Amino acid sequence: MVAALRYLGSACGRARGGFPGACRPASGRPWSQCGGGRSTSTSTSTSSFDIVIVGGGIVGLASARALILRHPALSIGVLEKEKDLALHQTGHNSGVIHSGIYYKPESLKAKLCVQGAALIYEYCNQKGISYKQCGKLIVAVDQEEIPRLQSLYERGLQNGVQGLKLIQQEDIKKKEPYCRGLMAIDCPYTGIVDYRQVALSFAQDFQEAGGSVLTSFEVKDIEMAKESPSSSKDGMKYPIVIKNTKGEEIRCQYVVTCAGLYSDRISELSGCSPDPQIVPFRGDYLLLKPEKCYLVKGNIYPVPDSRFPFLGVHFTPRMDGNIWLGPNAVLAFKREGYRPFDFNARDVMDIIINSGLIKLVSQNFSYGVNEIYKACFLGATVKYLQKFIPEITIGDILRGPAGVRAQALDRDGNLVEDFVFDGGVGHIGNRILHVRNAPSPAATSSIAISEMIVDEVQQRFEL
Questions:
Q1: SS3 77
Q2: How do residues 299-335 score in pLDDT, each as one tens digit?
Q3: pTM of structure
Q4: How far apart are CA 144 and CA 146, in angstroms?
């Protein structure tokens, strides 16, 4: 496993200096805004922030919120390339509030997921955000799965997951009347929520505390300023220049990147290492027809096979009452490729040349072929689903939405299992923190992750 908390090069340099109480935007046309809070205007003239967060997904917004709540005197800006926030991984996931059972004991994923689930429930209660603590069954349908199920149960206990129980056939039927299984882990603490709603609430908190959200700002370059802007009285207090694809720029003292599917490229733009590389995996969902949604009450998951990298197709209730079936896991040929034939030449070349994908494919060839087969033929997926709920037929399902997972992959073809944070060396590297790998359960863990990021920012930048 790649180290959970990794720093490239030497320990970061400590940049000192006072922080002004607010940013000083220049006059000009307004930036696109999202959520509540104060508005900010700027132009191609330079606006300055103490800290900039690149990426307006749930982790970036949670981190911005945590930073400004802990350091209200700092001027903090969030940059998002889209016209709105939380449109990609945050807006295309299953909505599950994970319990933390799957992850290696003592790993960051295990610790932050267990902590994060409690914090998400607490936050939703405070903000009046609807959620359902509908629970989850991890179901063994074959005798050979029972030892793996029991091992998973022990792992969950080690991770401190609340309320876990091993249950038998009769208790499975009490919780999921239509589900067939020999034994199951009952995870009552698992829930569902609309994570985009949570992310937008984080953005509103951030803006109401004085933060600025700048949308339609696609970062093209991150570099050290060669001179202070002509209108500035602060000299080189804001030495980092962030430019977008329109030629506009902002300046700042420090940068935190939470760029998801583009985390490797943003790191490379800043002069830091591009590794681990991001390889996009598309997950396609099926929908259970509304008249058949009575077949599923809570989350129903298979017993994961440790030989393969993903959890397998599962049954997921949604806040709108729908039931999603999936996802599968197939290679996407575009980083934001939500449709099967979406294609981007640069993304494909990066996958082939720069990542360890070829090694991953060779190690998991049968799994990959099976996933592609199920993606093409609904009957194959239905046959798999019938292991759990025999009543489901091919006439009961429809093709549904898809998401793309930003999976970090090392050059030896290993999936990076844990969260990865790093910086670099040199003038920019000492002023930047990259959140390099934050896949599922990052949404569940977002508040806990943000607190850890703020701790690291404080230490690294001596706030």
A1: strand
A2: 999 999 776 656 778 999 999 999 999 898 889 999 9
A3: 0.88
A4: 6
